[in-house]
Amino acid sequence: MRWRTRATPPCCGTRPPSRRSSPSSARCREGTAGTRQGEIAMGARDGAFDHGPASGEVLILHGFTDLLAPDMRVRLMASLSPEEEARRRAFAFPRDRDLFLLAHAVKRLALGRCLGVDPQDLAFARDPSGKPFLAGPFLAGPSQAGAGPGFSLSHSGTAVAVAIAGTPLVGVDVEAHVREVPLEAMAMIMADAEVADLSAAGAAARPRAFAYWTLREAFAKAVGLGLSLPPNDVSFQLAGSGPAGQEAPAVAHLAGHLGAAGDWHLHQCDLGPDYLLAAAVRAPCPVVWRLMPMERFLAGTTP
User: Fold this and answer.
1) Which residues contact 124 (CB under 8 A, 6 or more apart)?
2) Each residue of 71-99: pLDDT tens digit?
3) What CATH number corresponds to the domain at position 121?
4) Residue ranges under compositional bias (Low complexity) (predicted)?
5) Secondary-structure breakdown of the chain: helix, strand, coil percentages, each rounded to the nearest 5
6) How many Å separate Cα 97 from the centre of its chain?
7) Closest alpha carbon to 140 in 52, 49, 217, 213
8) Range of the domain at 134
9) Would you say residue 86 lies in a domain?
10) Spatial distance between the Cα atoms of 115 and 122, rounded to a whole number of angstroms
């Protein structure tokens, strides 16, 4: 199969273990699509929101818009800034308004709790590439890496994910499995090594392409480049691949201006049967991925 014809495109702190929650809808990917999947493992854990992410932790809050009962909707709307509420109202369709509400309200509530401040006191700005960051006294822009928590938002279908880390270099992506993106279109944004892997994958090509796609989206968000990230500046190795059959996905190659490949940590898991989540963070030490359903987080926040 011809995949594409493409020109070059335009330290670690510790925390007490969290209490285990009831089984979550998030399930870690222990291998590539079509292989065994297990409960949250590989350093990822699901627990009560008793603190923000420690150094070396990434907190991922995940949920679905069906949790927006009338009282919850009112409660979350109260946490938005006037500018965010105006943006929410500007969406033509209720589904899009709900996705925006859940993502941005949970972002504010989680960051407020991490920092011990009123969520409405938080201010946000964007860097020249459009990547959002905490502003004001909690500045966490790329020029102030480590000065405050970084965050990333994603949504697809009815699913929403919010990632928070101690560095601004964090990204998350969630995608619906039913999204029918042609393989040739996905290959256009992939590295040559990834395209070669897909060409040899046979029937497994589509799920592998989907895994590459979400990892690349998460990484591109983390570095603030989005679709402007040149395909061959980074390539990924999927979980279960490589000579060692590593349990987690990894950065296989990285252009020098993006740092050292070994400083990047990746995570990928299914959110129920219909969605795939990927996250990326740059950290100089091993990372603990801390996953939590939004319902559990919201149950522990005060109205």
Assistant:
1) 132, 133, 134, 135
2) 999 999 999 999 999 999 999 999 999 99
3) 3.90.470.20
4) 9-26
5) 35, 25, 40
6) 20
7) 52
8) 36-299
9) yes
10) 10
